[in-house]
Specification:
Layout (H helix, E strand, L loop, with lengths): L1 E2 L13 E4 L3 E7 L3 H6 L14 E7 L5 E11 L2 E7 L3 H10 L7 E4 L5 E6 L3 H5 L10 E4 L2 E9 L2 E8 L12 H10 L36 H9 L5 E8 L8 E4 L8 E9 L2 E9 L7 E3 L7 E4 L5 E2 L3
Antiparallel strand pairs: 1-18, 2-8, 3-6, 3-7, 4-5, 5-6, 8-11, 9-10, 10-11, 12-15, 12-17, 13-14, 13-16, 14-15
């Protein structure tokens, strides 16, 4: 049983073009055991990831908390690329490297070789050609670049363009805030340094948006994630809000009904139209309460719709 989200304000319909995602980075895993190794570390099935597919995946601590989130794709059988927030890439790379042991897998920071651009808007379809028609989480080649279709945001199509730094998409520049706002409106929370080790995947709706494969077997934190899923212990979710203030990931959120302690935390935020659009990880018990940013008397949050439905208990 599911319930639909609430009504929301629309995103900027003119958000179209391309922007270099300087706040993203890329880890390259290469070697005969690269996919097998990552299959045992991430919440996603990597072994069966095809060359024309991509996935959202989490990397968890033994306690099931997300240390990083990745968009992953597999250009060849012996190579997997993992795109993540640049500010947590060094820590994630170091921790993943600790577990390689005898696996035939080499992990490196490939951000200098593989640059990422966010591409958005219907006008981009002509520039992308046949690659524009791929479905979400599918990939295609545009010359030497790899294009991955991301879930839409308020009807705006989005793609991730991965290529050499000199191979930028031939599109008008897109404001970085506009891209970040589309990311929030798509309801796909990206873990950053300030939110690392804070959330079990379900707190960010990862099992709903395809970021967790419950059939793939063990990975760090798997027992905690599975127990949360099957014992009905999910008491926190990521919800959409707007506010007239500027917000940042890691900011705490307070509920009027219990102002003595935080009710949630901002997972992602973007400036838009004099304020911010937010994804907030929140106690479900506080979802209907009056909510404030950073302090019990801080800026007011206004509930907005997610682009997907949550379980009825949310």
């Amino acid at each position: 049983m599911i319930i639909a989200g609430m009504s929301t304000s629309s995103s900027n319909a003119t958000a179209a073009g391309a922007v270099r995602l300087a706040h993203w980075g890329v880890i390259r895993a290469s070697g005969a055991d690269a996919a097998t190794f990552l299959h045992g570390q991430l919440t996603q099935d990597v072994e069966h990831l095809g060359p024309d597919s991509a996935r959202l995946a989490g990397f968890c601590s033994p306690k099931g908390r997300l240390l990083a989130s990745f968009v992953i794709w597999r250009p060849s059988p012996d190579e997997v690329l993992l795109a993540c927030s640049a500010d947590l890439l060094p820590a994630a790379l170091k921790r993943l490297s600790m577990f390689v042991l005898r696996a035939r897998c080499k992990l490196v920071d490939a951000s200098g070789d593989v640059a990422l651009w966010g591409v958005a808007g219907h006008a981009a379809r002509e520039a992308l050609g046949a690659a524009a028609s791929i479905e979400p989480w599918q990939g295609a080649a545009v010359g030497a670049a790899r294009v991955i279709r991301l879930p839409d945001a308020d009807g705006q199509p989005r793609w991730l363009w991965a290529a050499a730094p000199s191979d930028a998409p031939a599109l008008p520049p897109l404001d970085p805030n506009a891209w970040d706002a589309l990311e929030v409106r798509a309801g796909l929370a990206r873990v950053v340094a300030r939110t690392a080790d804070q959330f079990v995947p379900q707190m960010l709706n990862y099992e709903i948006v395809g970021g967790v494969d419950f059939r793939k077997g063990c990975y760090p934190g798997q027992e905690v994630v599975a127990r949360s899923q099957y014992r009905g212990t999910i008491k926190r979710r990521a919800l959409r809000f707007d506010t007239d203030a500027e917000a940042s990931p890691g900011d705490e959120v307070f509920a009027a009904g219990d102002p003595s302690q935080p009710a949630g935390m901002v997972a992602n935020a973007a400036r838009e139209a004099g304020g911010s659009v937010l994804l907030v990880e929140l106690k479900l018990a506080s979802a209907g309460d009056t909510l404030h940013l950073r302090s019990p008397d801080g800026p007011l949050l206004r509930r907005a719709a997610l682009p997907y439905d949550l379980p009825a208990d949310a």
